[in-house]
Fold this sequence. Notes:
43% helix; binds zinc ion; single chain; Nucleotidyltransferase, domain 5; 19% strand; 5-stranded mixed sheet
Amino acid sequence: MKILGIETSCDDTGVAIYDTDDGLLVNLLYSQIKTHQEYGGVVPELAARDHLRKTMPLVDAALQEAGLDGRELDAIAYTKGPGLAGALLAGSGVAKGLAYGWGIPAIGIHHMEGHLLAPMLEDNKPAFPFVALLVSGGHTLLADVQGIGEYTILGQSIDDAVGEAFDKTAKMLGLGYPGGPILQKTAKKGKPDRFKFPRPMTNRPGLDFSFSGLKTFALTCKQKLEADDVLDEQAVADVAYAFQEAAVDTLKIKCERALQQTGNKRLVIAGGVSANQRLREILTDVMKQVNGEVFYPRLEFCTDNGAMIAYAGAMRFSEQDQELGFSVKPRWSIDELDAVRKTPS
Length: 345
Ligand code: KG4
Ligand code: ZN
C-alpha cells in the first residue's frame, strides 16, 4: 500500500510517500524560514499562502522521484490538526482535491500522533507500551502509549510549550528565528554556573509543565545585564546555556516521574525539540541508569515532515476514510483519537 503524506500545520510544507512493503520512498520538505525570518516568528497568513504555492509542486516532485503516477497511490494522508487554521486548510484542500480526482481515500491525521509515530520509521522501533514525551513548538506532553490511538495524557504544559519557550527566549536574546536550533548552538559557548534558572513545577507532585516562567527569568537576567552594562556575546551565551539546562532538566525530572508512575522502561521522545542534543544526551543517560531504552527519530523526522503523516496514514488506512468537505481541527487533543489494532509495519 502506497500512501502520500501532506503536512502543512505550521511553517514547513512536507510531502512524502510511504510504502507499507518498501518503507519510505521519498520525503520532501520546503521550509518557510526565509518567509518568516524578518518578522521574528511565524506569520499565519503568510504561512497559509506559502503552503498553497508549494504543496502541489512538492506532490508532483515526490511522485516523479518515486516514479509513480497519482493513480498508483492507495490513499492520501494530510494533517487535519492541531495547527494554524489557514495552513491546515491549504494542505487539506490539496489532499482532498487529489483524493477525489484519483478516487482514493483522504485520511485526516492528528499532527501530534504523526510526531509520536515518527520513531517507527526507524529500523529500531519502540515496542508498545511506552511513555512518550512529545515536545514541539505548540505542545509539551507526556503520554502513556499502549498502542496506536491508545494514548492517555499523563501531563502537559499549562502555558507555553517548551519549543515556544526556546523560540521566545531566543528572540528576546536577539538570536533570531527559528529559536530552538540557534539557542542550542549559542548555549554551547555558554559557561555553566553563571546563572541558575528554576525548574518549574518540579517541587510538587504531578506531571504537568509550565515553561513561561523560564522565558521571563531569561528576560530578567537580560535586563539586569543591560542595567550593569555587561550584556555582551558571552553573557548571552551564558543565559542561553542556563535556560537550556533548566528546560532540559525539567523535562528529565518529569520523564523520570512518568516512567516510575507507569512502571515503563521504554521512553520515546518526538517533536521538534527532540532534535535538541542536550535533551537526547540527558535522557539517554537516564534510560541507561534504569536499564531502559530511549527512542527518538533521526533529526529530519523530529521537526515537521511529510513522512510521519504518510506513516500515520498507513496505520489508520481503511476503505471508509473518504470524507469530503473541508473540516480541519486547529485545536485537537491527542487523547480523543480512536484506537487502531494494528502492528506497526
Ligand atoms: O515539531 P515542530 O517542527 O513544529 C511544531 O509542531 O511545533 O517543532 C518546532 C519547535 C520549534 O519551537 C523549534 O524551536 C523547536 O521545535 N526546535 C528545537 C530544536 N530544533 C527545533 N528546540 C530546541 N533545540 C533544537 N535543536
Ligand atoms: Zn510538529
